[in-house]
Amino acid sequence: MRKHFAAARPAMLFTALLLWSGTVARADEARLILTGSSTIAPLAAEIGKRFETLNPGIRIDVQSGGSSRGISDARSGIADIGMVSRAPNPGESDLKFFGVARDGVSIILHRDNAVPSLTDAQITGIFKGNITDWKDVSGKPGRITVVNKAEGRSTLELFLNYFKLRNSEIKAHVVIGDNAQGVKTVAGNPGAIGYVSIGAAEFEAGQGTPIKLLPMSGVAPSVENVRNGSFPLSRTLNFVTKSEPQGLARRFIDFARSRNVDDLIKAEYFAPFAE
Amino acid sequence: MTSSKQNTLPLSRSDTWLIRVLAVASTAAACILVLIVLFMLQEAWPVLQRIGLLRLLSDPAWHPAEGLYGLAPMVAASLAIAAGAVLLAGPFGVASALFVRFYAAAPLASAFRLALLLLAGLPSVVLGLWGLTVLVPLIGRIEPPGASLIAGVLVLALMILPTIALTTEAALDAMPESYLRGAAALGLSRESTILGVILPAVKGSIMAGVLLSAARALGETVVLLMVTGNVVRLPVSLFDPVRALTANIALEMAYAMGDHRAALFVSGLMVALLVLLFVLVSRRLGGGWSFNV
């Protein structure tokens, strides 16, 4: 027994030394701070990780806190880059916006549902609980199951904004977390209606999952239409800076907008930004 | 081996070391638990202070983005799911333990025990996936949407059944042989032995096992997230979708900030409190061992 303890002592010392040297090394690293939209934060963190691997000695710090924090932190200089998941408002022309990716949401139904499309008013009616049977929207009779997203999800936020709804107005029958769960829920219930990121829905439908994506205002739901901006239920995910970015910030923004991160963008079910 | 507490022999060198190692390990485990609870309290504090426990329990709805933090429906849902699962799995678990111990032929008993162990070892996410893709659509055919209280109860019952069966079996094994011999000497039939001698003798430890599995049911997350529909409301019918406290945390934690995040920590504290309550009660019941014959 005693021998083991003796052996452990140098190991502990070594660990302590390692930790200490780590903090020292960190002090002279170049740092880039990003704050803002929780939609973009996971993607920015992934891009940051790859950027750090390619550029040793550089640290990318990503903190989420909402688009408005992204705007105010970029303006005040607390963050080098703000993350904003919407188009610039009129009062924000002093800031520079750089699109990184595009995010689109598609309404999904079970593949056996005969309803070919729904108007915005019909969708609002269904989610508010005013329309409860498919026969009221020219489908086969059957109870509608409304599948909503859990509080805080960016897809929920985009959906609510587009349809001018508050979350408390939605009469949900099922609340889901991630896109995959949403797809499985709708695939298992012929009367269900839900919404998920287009990238996820397109992928699953392509794999033979029994769901279908509804067009919005006549525009087909596809990652391509999200990318070129023609799909209505979509938005641009932006990096925002106070002035024309220089040095490290410039390099990072260029990297995030390059083809080098397409796979990361697709992994988060976003569409790469049109170059 | 001498019982260590009544040991009057001088401690050997290796004993001293063993005691030190054990003391360090158990202190560390206890400290970590205390630190976790303190951490949860600290994270929950802003909302407990500003909004108060009363409003957390009495707000009419859960819409954190709109400043409503009603947790009561989720407390009710968690308790309802756990209670339902225990009511369902309890009788089945005890029955299967009695069957294996007293009726089943040896090969059947060992096969059955193996099946129970397999079920006990099945990761909850696998059961949840099965629930989501098989059970929920089936229930949905009877009463849409399918994701409901009953779906959660059924899958959880399946999950805790092996625990109840195995703890009951362990209790039966621990029962002194003399009880059975006494019953046989009195000429009791197998049925009367089981009902009149065995069950009364082990009922305390059965209850303890049942309550421990109820605590496990309360803490279960992934399964409930997948099959109960997660709509925050008081369950009225078995087919109503509900949201458990644990599912609430898993659903929203990654996206929550400020008071919303703190309110999720309150959800966690409530789960911990309910589990603590169950464990305390189960210890009291389990304390009723009476095999000192």
Give a description of the structure.
The complex is a heterodimer of chains A (275) and B (293). Helices cover 39% and strands 22% of the residues of chain A. Chain A is built from ten helices and ten strands. Chain A has helices at residues 2-27, 41-54, 67-76, 120-128, 154-163, 179-187, 198-206, 223-227, 247-256, 262-267; strands at residues 30-36, 58-64, 81-84, 96-110, 145-149, 174-176, 192-197, 211-213, 234-241, 271-272. In chain A, strands 1, 2, 3, 4, 5, 6, 7, 8, 9 and 10 form a ten-stranded mixed beta sheet that branches. Chain A is elongated. Chain B has 293 residues and is mostly helical. Helix content of chain B is 75%, strand content 1%. Chain B is built from eleven helices and two strands. A two-stranded antiparallel ribbon of chain B has the order 1-2. In chain B, β1 (62-63) and β2 (68-69) form a beta hairpin. The longest helix of chain B is centred in the N-terminal third of the chain and has 38 residues, at 13-50. The chains are: A alpha/beta (275), B mainly alpha (293). Chains A and B meet through β6 and α6 of A and α1, β1, α5 and α10 of B.
